[in-house]
Amino acid sequence: MSEFGATAGSADAPEPTPVPLLAAPVAGVPPVVDTADGVRKAADQLAAGTGPLAVDAERASGFRYSPRAYLIQLRRRDAGTVLIDPIPVAAELDPLIAVVNDLDWTLHAADQDLPGLADLGLTPMRLYDTELAGRLAGFERVGLAAMVERLLGFGLAKGHGAADWSKRPLPDAWLNYAALDVELLPELRDAIAAELSAQGKTDWAAEEFEYIRTATRSTPRTDRWRRTSQIHTLRRPRQLAVVRELWTTRDNLARNRDIAPGRILPDAAIVAAASVVPSTVDELRRLSVFGGPRQRRLSRTWLDAIERARALPTEELPPASQPFDGPPPPNRWARRNPEAADRLTAARAAMTGLSEQVRIPTENLLVPDLLRRLCWDGVRSGDLARAEAVDEYLRAGGARAWQRELVVPRLVAAFGSS
Q1: Cα–Cα distance between 302 and 145 in angstroms, integer?
Q2: Which residue has the higher pLDDT, 69 or 10?
């Protein structure tokens, strides 16, 4: 039993209402550490604690280009909570690194914060992700506040997650919110771990946590400009070339200034310019957004990008659709590969049945793209009846051992009946 009276709840238990609101940390909001001496003291404080380290970080998504952490929250039993501003002490974190990198970390939605923390030299020896644990336990709502309410019986004061955390000084209300994000993480870990143990999923979760901890950063997607909102309204390759040039120019400006691209030029403005392809500054400024005072200063920059697209020879224009190395969209399978379409239908039905049986979302049982590739041509039709062949294909695609143990027999049986 913790100081908060935490107990694990059943995956089928109703959410308790009403619940007491935890509006502020029990011991108050600690001062923000922003000096080298403060980092050393924080490291000593955490070293004197016990058990896993609760970790969270606040970024400035939507405001800044980089995924860097602008505030780090750390908590450990018998040590309390530490808030660190990494901006002024980024080069002074060695004492903290020496302590925390050897600890077992607890995070909620770890994949969001690990990259920014790793950039500062902060990496866990072991990892526990309470959000992922909630998914594996079959919880429909796995946000931090929802899980704290369900398993610990407390409501959390929220409201600043989407704030501009690069702002200085940070408002007191934001710091209160940030401290609450780790206030109950140790208790939440205990509660969800008990739930997973009761469901026999502890080992499955351990494999998933280790996979996240050791995952290499994905290579940035090529043709990221094709994700521009409303680009589907454009049909001509020349228009797509304008989108590509404007997107690339904006991205370079955003990276150099560390500003979110949408704050430099919204996607809607890019598509508007590509739809008409203006040839003069005056034509450009007659378009919505480009005529505003902020954009007028960059008129020549934007027009130069458009002119580069206009000058491209036909053979260098982007294709109408994005090149893809995988199978086509499933709605085209019936015509192009009827046997694969049948396999996918059977496989999806098998995965749905398995998901209901073990109470884990299908996407956590197997990455949907990997399943589609398997059904399309990953293993030749003659081998789909062999469990060894399917298992090897999924292993090579990154599926963990617990996933393969569950899904391979179901898929082989499904392929045999399709």
Answers
A1: 43
A2: 69
